[in-house]
Amino acid sequence: MFRAALKSLLDRKVRLLMSTFAIVLGVAFVAGSLIFSDTLSRSFTALFSSTVGDVVVRPESSGATSGGFSSLTVPASVVEDLEGLPGVARVDGNVNAFGVYVVGEDDKVIGGLGPPALGGNYMTAPSAGGAGLELVEGEAPQGVDEVLLDDRTAEKAGYVVGDTVPLLTPRGASRLAPTLVGVVGFPDGGSLNGATLALFDTATAQDLFLDGDEAFSDIWVTAEDGVSQADLAETVAAALPDDVEAVEGDTAADESADDLLEAVSFITTFLLIFAGISLVVGSFLIVNTFSILVAQRSRELALLRALGASKRQVIASVQLEAFVLGVLGSTVGMGLGVLLAMALRVLFAQFGLDLSGQPLVFEARTVLASYVVGVLVTMAAAWLPARRTARISPVQAMRDDVALTESSIQQRFWRGLALGVLGLVVLGLGLFSDLPYGGQMTGGGILFVLLAVAAMSPVISRPFLVGARALYTRLFGSIGNLAGQNSLRNPRRTTATASALMIGLTLACTMAIVGDSAKASVDASVSDNFVGDYVVSNVFGGEFNATIADEMAQVPGVGQVIRERFQLVERDGDAQGVVATDPATIDGLELDLLRGSTSDLRDGTVLLDETFADEEGLAVGDTVDVTVPTGEKSWEVVGVYAENPVVFSPVLTTLTTLVDAGYEPADNALIVFAEPGASDLQAGLDDVVADLPIVTVKDQAAFAQERREPIDQFVLIIFALLGLALIIAVLGIVNTLALSVIERTREVGLLRAIGVSRAQLRWMITLESVVISVLGAVLGVLLGVGFGVALMYAVRDKGLEVISVPYGQLAVFLALSVVIGMLAAILPARRAARLDVLRAISTE
């Protein structure tokens, strides 16, 4: 049986080639996702190891928060206090700043989207991680007119040593134009992962980023040879003031890396979800392939049964073929996964996450996961047709035609119906009940319904196939009738092929509805709640100079300017966004206070969004406990307001509260009100920020468009990733038709013998392909509409209250299914038309 299985595999290697594509593509997505994830993790770990000293001296609470840039500093006198301590080789002060943007020669900001724009002072202290940033060209900067850039930023901007570099700073002068006197980089390999870096001499950095204070953001203490970080930290801690702490460099690096890796961990989960989708779609292709191949070998398997082979041996022989196929597909898939990881690296570089300086990381778990997934999926998919075939008696299998019994299809229908009912019940509980894990129940219900439809499709699609046959007969005569009959001949095979396309289009239609509804909800929310006449914000969502608000308040025709600032604080171990504004101007936000009063908002208190307050069980009079750079704080809740898109976080406090918490006094958004009768303020406001390409002035329409753009980008990424599943589905149609032509070789020969032309034969195969693809598309669109509406209803209390169905886009999906069907039929139809008539007729 072992030799027979291998011989069968070799005899049908061309037929099996198409089914390996499904395994190759699915495994490639798994391997590529894991390789990219490991590379991302390794790069950040290495990066943060190079940005700390052996011991880091910092303000006591600065490392405890989950986000936000602390304005707390360490006095410069601490450097002198630490020099000369036992085990200390050197002590260096470090100045850090965020929001220092490099402007390219085209007057566009380099980077800024995702990874931060960093600034600071140049120093030569060695890092705890060994290889760190070093001066690779030029010389150290001196004074405000000289600057260093990292090598990748200089390359992207097109600057060389001696050029003038326009810089935007978060504080002090809005725009600088120093000369590039040197370039820093990682000589031993590594990069800043897309961040930009501008370095000045220490005195200049203190003037620009610390208001001229003789202080540092933190201090690096370098150990003498043979002194451990733990021992050095203990020695240093004994010499520090009460509000300053000494942390081992490895600990500080791990804190920073862990926080960031947790923030980007969704990328791995996101990619693996689509890998799973691809494997599910691919499994339909594998089931179909083995169903056809096993059916073609029914006589061979029956003869083996007659010679004494058991059902178990027959199943084992098919499983052996699947195992070999899975190993082959997994091996090729891993190789393709490396290319996919490289493509992902290029893709994410477009969003600012540049890992081009990092070698790809190929861990043992990637190899294990690739083979386990590829082999198990293939063997599981092949087990179903093998088990069905083993049930056929040897005498029955010796007949010319072995058909699946009607009872088998009916049993599958009833099982699918039961699963569908269960899915609808679970979906209903997720949508309409107050049970915990409502989101998971909604997702589970959708999955059950999707699998149920796939199981029931041989029965529920019969009216469609009968109607398609009638339509084909009317439009294309006998050739159309033959195509319709072929689709009805084996409904399990037809619908299994269509189900692969159905899954891909179901998800595509669902995301189309989610995206369109989200944009419609944004438009409605902005239309209903937009206040003021203009919104001023950073195009990267970051901070900008607080002096801009003062300058805009002086523009003729401006009546009022409301500041909004945003920071991340730590609450219960997680990051929590907080918005701040001036209580004197809060009435201009037109908040709909449900409980409490805006007049009660004072320093140390907060107003909460209604949804957030309900989810957290908070009411007026309660406190919100947070960790900020200056330590633990308890902010009293003095009001609850209805959701407002202009307040872009559920916790609202005062400007002074954030400053007292240790955050920089920089703005994130301004709301500008025109005086009565004033018009066309846009030009005057634009003049204020003319030299600041990161700051834009928007009216209501532009503000709504800006809120819609991230949704469009997200949906586009989803469609791109779903494209792989659709490619596998198309390959499934091609494979099914190709194997069907081989299975019907004698039939094709007879058709040619009685006068059917090659063109008619090609058209018949094409019509069969179109039936399969249109069936998959119809089922996919119907399910996608239902799931999309259900998902939007499930998140109705999250501010997405408008359900919008993009009918034009769904019509495009249906039209594309016809095109897909015609393209998928090209190779199988060509093969059928080229068959030799006499050889085809004589085929066993």
TrEMBL record:
Keywords, ordered alphabetically: Cell membrane, Membrane, Transmembrane, Transmembrane helix
Membrane-related topology note: Multi-pass membrane protein
Segments passing through the bilayer: 16-36, 270-295, 322-348, 368-386, 413-433, 445-465, 496-515, 714-742, 763-795, 807-829
Domain MacB-like periplasmic core, chain residue ranges per copy: 17-238, 494-679
GO molecular function: transmembrane transporter activity
Coiled coil: none
Gene Ontology terms: cellular component: plasma membrane
InterPro entries according to UniProt: ABC3_permease_C (IPR003838), MacB_PCD (IPR025857), Macrolide_Exporter_MacB (IPR050250)
Residue intervals of the ABC3 transporter permease C-terminal domain: 273-394, 720-836
Compartments it resides in: Cell membrane
Highest taxon listed in the record's lineage: Bacteria
Annotated family: Belongs to the ABC-4 integral membrane protein family.
PANTHER family in the cross-refs: ABC TRANSPORTER PERMEASE YTRF, MEMBRANE COMPONENT OF TRANSPORTER-RELATED
Name by which UniProt lists this protein: Putative ABC transport system permease protein
Gene source species: Nocardioides psychrotolerans
